[in-house]
Amino acid sequence: MGEKAATNDVIVALLNAKRYSWEASLALRKIFEKAPTNEIIAALLNAIRDEDANVRSSAFQELQALAKKAATNEKIAAVLNEMSDEDAILGCRASQPFEEILEEAATNEVIATLLNAVLDEDANVRHSASEALGNMGEKAATNEVIAALVNAVRDEDANVRHSASEALGKMGDKAATNEVIAALLNAMRNEYATVRRSASFALENMGKKAATNEVIAALVNAVRDEHADVRSSAFQTLGKMGEKVATNEVIAALVNAVLDEDANVRHSASEALGNMGEKVATNEVIAALLNAVRDEDANVRHSASKALGKMGEKTATNEVVAALLNAVRDEDANVRSSASIALGKMGQKAATNEVIAALLNAVRDEDANVRSEAFEALGKIGEKAATNEVVAALLNAVRDEDAYVRSSVSFALENMGEKAMTNEAIAALLNAMCDEDVDVRWKASIALVNMGKKAAKNEVIIALLNAVRDEDANVRSSASKALGNMGEKAATNEVIAALLNAVRDEDANVRSSAFETLGEIGEKAVTNGIIVALLNAERDENANVRWKASEALGKIFEKAVTNEVIVALLNAVCNEDPNVRSSASETLGKMGEKAATNEVIAALVNAMSDEDEFVQWCASRALGMMGEKAATNEVIVALVNAVCNEDANVRSSAFETLGKMGEKAATNEVVAALVNAVCYEDPIVRSEACEALGKIGEKAATNEVIAALTNAVRDEDDYVRSKAFEALGKIGEKAATNEVIAALLNAMSDEDDYVRSKAFEALGKMGEKAATNELIAALVNAVRDEDEYVRSKAFKALGKMGEKAATNEVIAALVNTMRFEDANVRSKAFEALGKMDERAAKNEVIAALLNAMSDEDANVRRKASGALKSMGEKATTNEVIVALLNVMCDEDANDGSSAFEALGKMGGKAATNQMIAALVNAMRDEDEFVQWCVSQALGMMGGKAGRNEVVAALLNASTDSLVLAEYPMMER
């Protein structure tokens, strides 16, 4: 009768009879096997409310058997109801189905009920509730649950302590609080081995977060536990914590444990050593693992082989390689597999004929996992393994019944280099591209990526075109990359059409690879559709896609700004999508003058009145990037209109663009609009307007402009003030009116360092016209400013004012800076003195310069020599000549050359016998620049230096360093 007999009464009767009769059990199974329908599940749900505990208990057992079909809200409610059942056994049963039936049941209501059950008076209920919470994992890891489980770890019942510890472990990182770790540490000392083992297991799942000194000490203690299970678990936990716990004490304990009497302990210890990696690859560890590779237990041999592999080349001794070669022939498949992996990870050190022969044998193993790992190992060995026999075995394995083996063939071919790149190998990969297994197809496409142009055959391109449409995202992504690596051969219309599809793929990696490929194909990939896709991608939600699309745009336009590219972008400027229009405008701007055709300029002018403000902003910026070439009347009119735009960003970019066009944009209308904008309420607009006026330069030097900028230097915004001073400086001497000078004087005490520096810079550019006594006094004051940049600009301004600034007060202030700690300040002071020429050649200045010739800073020494050079004959004292002679012997060629130049400027006055002898000696210097400076100095000394030895030295000198006709002495 089967499911037709599944009434409530029948099911209750069968559940009741199940205890006594196997026929009743059989009848139930037949009913449920044929039709575990909603009706049957409903009948069982009714049965768990039966007054008979045995019926209820049997109903739970049957529900567990039908777990997958039983996960409905109705069932959750039923189980929740039973949590409060008076029958203790039934309460326990009620929490057990959560592992199978209620995987998705971690609702607040369920968790709250289980929390109550963790406090139940019956130990079985507490145990089962803790277990159920653990099975919910991280979903149940609330503060309340963790607190309840921490309490349960201290329960009087060992089973409860055990399940609570395990539950905390299953919650992983989320449960790794200080309180939990402290409770688990306590449990590690419990009298019951199961509790100690589960506490260790919990710490293992918490990983590195639990790797405190106290935990490590407890685990080191646990590895000496009398119970093998506890020792084994402790080693597993130490292994999971990795390098962090690799202390000498831990390593010694692990080495010892590899010889433990219990096979599980030896296995766990070997595994732990492997997880600690190269850091623990000492001779003692390698010797212990070498022993373990020959262990009687297969699991130990397996984990020891694996551990040696994880330690890499460090373990590749002859003994280890011999032991692993033996293990490749082990009776246990797992051992053979891990030995193959280990040999592969040892790289070239293990690339002997014996190893290759053993692996070649292993690729014919009856176990698929062994075959697969052997192929991977051969791939890791690389070209050395690409013998005819190995390549033949690889080609044969393309037809292996196991998908994992077939996928490892592609990996091996990819890594064996050119030797394995035969037509047969490419044909095998093409075969693999059509494999039913997704991993095989993916590995084959990766292999083709690395073969690049060598695999660029029509059949391969067709296969990759198919793969770009594969159902698997990884295959689609690597197929796109493979097409990119094949270069121009793959730049067909079909490929570009397929890539256009791929850049719209739902998977970000596929989109990213497709854009990368388009970049590799370059200008040949330029179609309207591709350009729009590239421009659109700049707003992709995935950062990598945006980057690859931007890179592709750059590569396409770098290779060739062709008419086709420009036409495609022009079309995009008219696209219906504002994002595409803005990106197209921006891209045209990045091409600069190359793209500044009449059509492009007209399209960008049109875009300046686009309905979208961002498009307007991009169009304005693009015109600015094209510079003066785009400074047509139509463009200027559009920009003047844009400076009145209601959007601050559009106004700002219009000003910036006008500034970039420079003097070409200096029409009366433009200047008037900029003057107007200096008073706008938006500080960004005001600063941009000032900057634009500065870039227009002297052409904008009208009274109205100067008045507007004078006003702006009193602006409340620091940046506006600085830009106004910058603009006045660029206008130059024409701006040096009394009002401007007064404003500059005022700016000397501005609170903003940058504003002060820009004011001094402007003064420097106005030159002598601005050199009033008040300003000079202010500049002298500024050389003591706390800001280095301000001091630097003040020195520069003093220098540029030239002779007018060479007052006793200025000179005294500059000499005073000799005591400044900052070498940059000292060098700037000498530079300023040098610009004052002979006017600064006073005794105290010369004394200061002489002092500076032995300064620890090379730049200061050079600037001091330069200043002496500027002062010429007026600075020619015996002390100066001796100092310059000393500098000439300096190791620094630049110092020496400065000294030679200074001596040259001093002319005949410096032409002493000692000096001429030193200069003749310097003509033999290996540095040609020094030779050139010396010959210049001798030339400037005139007839006094026209001696035979000088002439001989000059004739011997390199022709690069001397033009004989320049020197007056040669007349003699």
UniProtKB/TrEMBL annotation:
GO molecular function annotation: oxidoreductase activity
A Pfam family per the record: HEAT_2
SMART domains: EZ_HEAT
InterPro entries: ARM-like (IPR011989), ARM-type_fold (IPR016024), HEAT_type_2 (IPR021133), PBS_lyase_HEAT (IPR004155)
HEAT repeats (start-end): 40-74, 110-147, 145-182, 215-252, 250-287, 285-322, 355-392, 460-497, 495-530, 705-742, 740-777, 775-812
Reported function: Catalyzes the hydroxylation of the N(6)-(4-aminobutyl)-L-lysine intermediate produced by deoxyhypusine synthase/DHPS on a critical lysine of the eukaryotic translation initiation factor 5A/eIF-5A. This is the second step of the post-translational modification of that lysine into an unusual amino acid residue named hypusine. Hypusination is unique to mature eIF-5A factor and is essential for its function.
Protein name as catalogued: Uncharacterized protein
Organism: Rotaria sordida
Organism lineage: Eukaryota, Metazoa, Spiralia, Gnathifera, Rotifera
